[in-house]
Design brief:
By secondary structure, the protein is of the alpha+beta class. Helices cover 54% and strands 17% of the residues. The strands form three sheets. Strands 6, 7, 8 and 9 form a four-stranded antiparallel β-sheet that branches.
Length: 347
């Protein structure tokens, strides 16, 4: 067999196969969420191998079967669940992450990794990583997702797992690390979530005992706070009663002060009125005295005597020769003498 014959042998064999198959192209389809990748097994004109072209979702391509291999990859978001709960997750057995915390306690953690392939890297995935979704999931995603998260979550203390913020922070660190590793393989991680976590039976029992003790302590604290609140209520009530009594006493004191001030002002006004009246009477007497001491005083006195003697019986006495001299008569003595005589005559 010469060189020309040897080089033409694949073409001749292909032509023979095509001839036997009727040279009929076959349909190759992609689902609504799938991308397709073609592998050229034999080519009369072009290169062989994985075609660096991505066939879009929901399309149909026609190729001759003998010359073509066809692979599809699902572009939907997928969840890899590693859990200790039987009947859940991907496996039939428990496959949660088991590791030690930084302070040395054993812990198991349920982890869910949400990921999807990078569509434009589907040819690279087929050529270098995996030939289908299951192989990619088991050989690449699961392998990486069971190793690196242990290291990162293991940086937490045992008590840190009680705090959701701490678990969330570590989940974000795991997500970043998985993307760093998996993106070169055509896989992008969108979220890493945690569910249940479990300690070793011995440590779990110690935790339960601690919880019981803490609950008892909280109960005692609550009772203490309730007693303190009741005491404060009683104190507040007593203070309120004292304030009420003080307010009443202050009110009575102010009322008494107001009444005393009013009585004082009343008596003060009365005293001023009495004083004014006395001063007026004194001034009147003073004026009268002044009037009586003047020239008309004697005439006024005589007028008053005349008024007093009005309708009185007058006894005339003889004058001269040692008799009564009216000009020098003491009127007071005369009245007294007349009164005595009147009394003697009545007897």
């Amino acid at each position: 067999m010469n060189i020309l014959t040897r080089s033409m042998l694949p073409v001749l064999l292909g032509a023979a196969v095509i001839g036997t198959s009727g040279c009929i192209p076959m349909p190759y389809r992609t689902g609504p969420t799938e991308v397709g990748v073609r592998t050229v097994k034999m080519s009369l004109l072009g290169d062989k191998g994985v075609e660096q072209k991505v066939y879009a979702p929901g399309t149909t391509q026609w190729f001759v079967p003998f010359f073509t291999d066809w692979h599809t990859f699902d572009t939907r978001m997928q969840n890899l669940e590693m859990t200790g709960a039987l009947g859940r997750g991907d496996g039939t057995a428990r496959d949660e992450l088991v590791f030690k915390t930084i302070d040395g306690n054993d812990i198991s953690l349920d982890v869910i990794v949400s990921y999807k392939i990078i569509p434009e890297q589907a040819p690279m995935i087929l050529q270098e990583v995996a030939t289908n979704d299951l192989e990619l999931r088991e050989s690449i995603v699961r392998t990486v997702a069971r190793s690196k998260p242990r290291d990162i979550f293991g940086e937490l203390d045992t008590e840190d797992f009680y705090i959701a913020e701490n678990r969330t922070q570590k989940s974000q660190e795991v997500e970043a690390k998985l993307n760093e590793i998996l993106k070169p393989y055509g896989v992008e991680v969108s979220r890493v979530g945690t569910r249940d976590y479990r300690y070793s039976p011995e440590y779990q029992a110690a935790i339960e005992d601690k919880k019981v003790a803490e609950q008892e302590a909280e109960k005692l604290k609550s009772e203490t706070k309730a007693t303190e609140a009741q005491f404060l209520t009683e104190v507040a009530k007593t203070m309120a009663d004292n304030e009420k009594l003080r307010a009443q006493a202050d009110g009575e004191y102010r009322r008494a002060m107001i009444e005393s001030d009013a009585y004082y002002e009343q008596q003060k006004s009365l005293a001023k009125a009495i004083l004014a009246e006395g001063q007026a009477e004194a001034e009147a007497i003073k004026e009268m005295n002044a009037a009586l001491s003047g020239a008309g005083g004697e005439a006024m006195v005589k007028l008053k005597i005349a008024e007093a003697l009005k309708d009185k019986r007058i006894l005339m006495l003889p004058t001269g020769g040692g008799g009564l001299d009216v000009r020098s008569t003491d009127i007071n003595q005369l009245l007294q003498t007349l009164g005595i005589k009147e009394l003697a005559g009545s007897k």
